[in-house]
Amino acid sequence: MVRRRRTLRDTVKMYYTYLLESQKDLGGYIGYTNDLKKRFLEHSHGKVASTKNRLPIKLIYYEAYLHRLDAKKREQFLKSGSGRKFIKKQLTNYFNH
Questions:
Q1: Please, what is the Cα angle at 16 between 27 and 26, to 5 degrees?
Q2: The sheet that has 15-22: what strands, in order across it?
Q3: On the chain, which terminus has fewer CB atoms closer than 10 Å, C or N?
Q4: Which residues on adjacent β-strands are paired with residue 22?
Q5: Which domains does the chain have, with CATH numbers?
Q6: pLDDT (tens digit, 9 = 90+) per residue, 24-74?
């Protein structure tokens, strides 16, 4: 039997808070997930109601957390007025290009 080498990804489950930007209307979408690659593909292929009419989309920011509730709370914060100000400040160079 051949043993597969364990990686950090095999042992640590991460949760992600992310920001997408619509290339159609330049609007943002904030969400959280435990599988960022899979969720981004779902958005990109029009499988998410909130973004399917705003394609194409681009992943412009994400944060990783060890606990689901931390990612969820961060998503809620980023959707608030203070959170949107944080994103604008954090991504100053991106938004001013």
A1: 10
A2: 28-33, 15-22, 57-65
A3: N
A4: 57
A5: 9-95 (3.40.1440)
A6: 999 999 999 999 999 999 999 999 999 999 999 999 999 999 999 999 999
- 68-72: long-range contacts (C-beta < 8 A, 24 or more apart)? 68/15, 68/32, 68/34, 70/15, 71/15, 71/16, 71/17, 71/32, 72/15, 72/32
Q: How far, in Å, CA of 95 to CA of 97, rounded? A: 6
| E strand segments, the chain | 15-22, 28-33, 57-65
pLDDT-derived band at 84 (thresholds 50, 70, 90) equals very high
Which DSSP state fits 45? T
Per the model's pLDDT, the better-predicted residue between 27 and 11 turns out to be 27
Look up residue 47 and give its two tokens: 């499988």
> What pTM, to 2 d.p., does this model score?
0.87
Measure Cα distances from 52 to 19, 24, 29 in Å: 15, 11, 11
Distance, in Å, from the CA atom of 83 to the CA atom of 41, rounded to the nearest integer, reads 25
